[in-house]
Model the fold of this input.
Amino acid sequence: MVSAREIAGAVLDPEMPMLTLADLGVLREVEEDGDRVTVTITPTYSGCPAVAEMRADLRRRLADAGYRDVEVRTVLSPAWSTDWITDAGRRALEEHGIAPPGAAPRGPVTLTLAPPSTVVRCPRCGSPATEETSRFGPTACTALRRCSACREPFEHMKEL
Done:
């Protein structure tokens, strides 16, 4: 029999369906007690519009597997970090043309009005010669970039 953890871990992220909730690092804990399951998730940010869909998908998949009582809890502390994305998740992002995030910033964060200056390699050709065209992409977690070498646009998952 497949465990509740395996079922919950295989649920896809509604905004980035190339990632499971486990690979995205959103799935925090799964407690199983007979046919009762409690799942704890931490969304990528507190206002994430996909949380309701994540909860519904988790409840549906676990109910379909025979769990009669499913509770999904949302925990915001500690805050989600891009460091929680698994290696498999980072590979999946890159395979789908999204540059994976680098390491999340540590320590005191200097506040500036300028976008952070980071080297982001093109997920298509690998060139480090890319530029940010918009700090905001199709999801709150991504920015839009363009490669100077192959001229292709792509998304970059921002470090959080």
User: Anything to note?
Assistant: Helices lie at 4-9, 21-24, 51-64, 87-95.
